[in-house]
Write a structure and sequence with these properties.
0% strand, mainly alpha, single chain, elongated
Length: 138
């Protein structure tokens, strides 16, 4: 199921509520699902966006990969903290800001690719990413 940026943020907020209620079981389930979706999104971007981006601007391609490395490291830290019961809501909120910045930059990169390569970087509905992409045309 595709998840828009607002939905992803909402899911993180629901996760924070579970953390604050000290419902570890529900929090673990919610986190595993969210983490899987984020990892799928990163792989999607690397498969469909990165090749065009690297061809047009290798430095920007390296920046995208560095962002992905940071996000994956953040996911790993949060997962470990959750398993050891050291994760706090403020850690998740901070990570949420990282994801919001990435989604914003993703939209800007797609627009840049389209304007500089005359190529639409947006996928078909079947290939649509989990968050950070423009909504399907109406």
């Amino acid at each position: 199921m595709a998840v828009g940026p607002e939905r992803a943020i909402h899911e993180l907020e629901e996760f924070v509520v579970k953390l604050e209620l000290d419902d570890l079981g529900a929090a673990l389930v919610a986190w595993r699902d969210f983490e899987s979706q984020v990892r799928q999104q990163l792989a999607f971007e690397e498969r469909l966006l990165l090749p065009t981006l690297v061809e047009a601007d290798a430095d920007e391609g390296r920046r995208l990969l560095a962002e992905h490395d940071d996000i994956r490291a953040g996911l790993a830290r949060l997962s470990n903290s959750l398993r050891t019961r050291l994760l706090r809501a403020e850690h998740v909120r901070s990570f949420c800001k990282t994801l919001e910045r990435h989604a914003s930059q993703h939209r800007a990169r797609c627009a840049w690719i389209e304007s500089h390569t005359r190529q639409d970087p947006q996928p078909t509905d079947r290939q649509r990413p989990l968050f950070g992409a423009a909504p399907p045309p109406s």
